[in-house]
Structure formats: C-alpha cells, structure tokens
Design brief:
Helix content: 40-55%
Largest sheet: 2 strands, antiparallel
Distance between the termini: 60 Å
Structural class: mainly alpha
Number of strands: 2
Oligomer: single chain
Strand content: under 5%
Radius of gyration: 18 Å
C-alpha cells in the first residue's frame, strides 16, 4: 500500500435510534438520551440470557430492582441518589452486560470506558460525574442484593451458592422478579426515570 494512501479510520461511535451519534471513547452528555438508554438496556439480558421465563431478565429490570433495594436500605434517601441507582448500569446500553468474571479478564480498559460513559450519563441528567465512595458502596450493596434475588429466582443458583457469591440481602424484603417483554421493560424504565427526574431537580 502506498504511503500516500490513508489507512481506513476505525469507527468508535454508535448511531442511536434517536439520531444521536455517541462517541464511545469520548462520550458527550449532549449525545445521551434516556430513550436510547431504556431501549438498549431493555434488550440486554442479564446472566447472558441463562434465566427462566419466556423473556430474558433485562438490565433495565435489574436497574429498577437495584433502585428499589437502595430505597429499602436507606429510607428517605434523596431522589437524585435513587436516580443514580437506576442509572448505575446505564453504560451497558452500548457496551452490553459482561458477567463479572469476564470483566475481570478484560481488565482496566473496559472499566475506564464504562466509567467515562457513566460520567457523561450522570452529567446529562444533573448528577455529579463521580459519586461518593459511600454512595457507590450503598449502590453496590443494592446491586448484590438484586443479584442474589435474580440468582435464586431466575438463574438456577441454590441459596447456598447465592450466599457464597453475593452475600445475604440483609434488611431487605423479598423482591418478586417477573421477566418482562423488552417493550414493557423499556416503558417501565422510562416511566420510573420520569418519576425521579423532577424530584431530582428539586432536591
């Protein structure tokens, strides 16, 4: 190949159904839309799709469970932090849901990309780009509780296995999980976002 010929440029952006073009390496909050997030998350399966039911249990549904668990763990927590819980896995609308062992194998580059996307999403919806360690720990605890409920109700784990990997969901009521069709999960996610966002602005 002649040195004068240009190498083909690697595409690092994704076209969204909203028409936005999201740069994955340098995401802008201006290219983030909740409809795109909800559409994507409702079509990303938790547990690589290895769950019971006629439909996959989606990341959108998982995020709603995490937000509910957070509210149980800390009654009276500000709506903006509940919104942060609802959005905690939002980057997966473009990068998918990798199971934890695979994330560890991929390494820091994956986590860097995920954190950049999450920061852009936070800024877009009026949240701090970075959450406090205390809040991150609380959301992680709610996340593990949701994983416990999913593992035992949908993913074929015994209680003993789930306790070993995710710990006990102490202080939480049992959450009954029903996998939804993608369109229903998408609509429920947007509806919950729309309930929290005005309260976030006021808090």
């Amino acid at each position: 190949m002649s040195k004068l010929q240009k190498q083909p440029q690697t595409r690092a952006w994704q076209r969204m159904l909203s028409g936005r073009r999201l740069d994955l390496l340098d995401p802008s909050p201006f290219d983030v839309e909740i409809e795109d997030i909800a559409h994507g998350l409702a079509r990303v399966a938790r547990w690589n799709g290895q769950t019971n039911g006629d439909h996959a249990f989606s990341v959108a549904e998982h995020c709603m469970v995490v937000e509910e668990c957070l509210a149980q763990l800390k009654p009276g927590i500000a709506p903006k932090w509940r919104l942060a819980a609802l959005l905690h896995d939002a980057p997966e609308y473009v990068i998918g849901d990798l199971i934890s062992p695979f994330k560890a194998a991929v390494g820091l580059d994956y986590k860097t990309l995920e954190n950049k996307l999450l920061a852009a999403i936070h800024v877009r919806f009026g949240l701090p780009a970075q959450l406090t360690d205390e809040l991150n720990a609380l959301i992680k605890r709610a996340d593990k509780a949701s994983a416990y409920f999913e593992a035992t109700q949908l993913a074929g784990f015994s209680v003993e296995e789930a306790l070993e990997f995710f710990g006990s969901p102490r202080g939480l009521r049992q959450v009954k999980l029903v996998p939804l069709a993608a369109r229903d999960a998408q609509a429920a996610y947007v509806a919950r976002f729309n309930e929290l966002l005005p309260e976030t602005s006021a808090s």
